[in-house]
Design brief:
- The protein is mainly alpha-helical and 161 residues long.
- The protein has one domain (21-144): Up-down Bundle (AhpD-like).
- It is 64% helix and 0% strand.
- The protein has nine helices and no strands.
- It has helices at residues 7-10, 12-26, 31-44, 48-60, 65-69, 82-95, 104-113, 116-138, 153-157.
- Helix 3 (31-44) packs across helix 8 (116-138) and helix 6 (82-95) packs across helix 8 (116-138).
- The longest helix is centred in the C-terminal third of the chain and has 23 residues, at 116-138.
């Protein structure tokens, strides 16, 4: 991992707990839905690290390229279920709270597609990925995935190092 500050090194006890909560929450809903939520939140928060990681994980879990590519335009794409649409609307509403409290319609869709327990699990999942986005963006974290080999700075920018 590369980062300006490695939170795992400087606060290992807290990060171990944060990781445990993250894994528990992620395991509480179906994997495909969890990855879609993680990707959508990471798109909203412009977190390259989490986008890189969760698109690779989604592919490894059988998600299609089409659904990954269309995620930023999920409202117009016919390839998502009503349950996924409700989760994505809730993800956007909670990830964009600073833009105004416009989550009532999203909550109605959520209530129609998820049990009360699942609503809490999904809300926790959204909070967890938003937290990871903030850690990764804030500290310039980059964790390389096996599916995406590192690109040197000169290759990425087209400038010789």
């Amino acid at each position: 991992m590369t980062a300006r500050l490695d939170p795992f090194a400087v606060a290992p006890a807290l990060m171990k707990k944060w990781m445990a909560v993250s894994l528990d929450v992620a395991g509480s809903l179906e994997p495909s839905l969890t990855e879609l939520v993680k990707i959508r939140s990471s798109q909203i928060n412009a977190c390259a690290n989490c986008l890189n990681m969760h698109t690779a994980e989604a592919r490894a879990k059988g998600e299609t390229e089409q659904r990954i590519y269309l995620l930023s335009a999920w409202r117009e794409a016919p390839c998502y279920t009503d349950r996924e649409r409700a989760a994505l609307a809730w993800t956007e509403a909670l990830s964009r709270l600073s833009e105004g409290h416009t989550h009532l319609a999203a909550r109605q869709a959520l209530e129609a597609a998820f049990s009360q327990e699942e609503q809490v699990k999904l809300t926790l999942m959204i909070n967890v990925i938003n937290g990871w986005n903030r850690l990764a963006v804030g500290f310039d974290m980059w964790i390389e995935t096996p599916a995406t080999p590192a690109t040197s700075a000169s290759q990425a920018t087209g400038v010789a190092a």
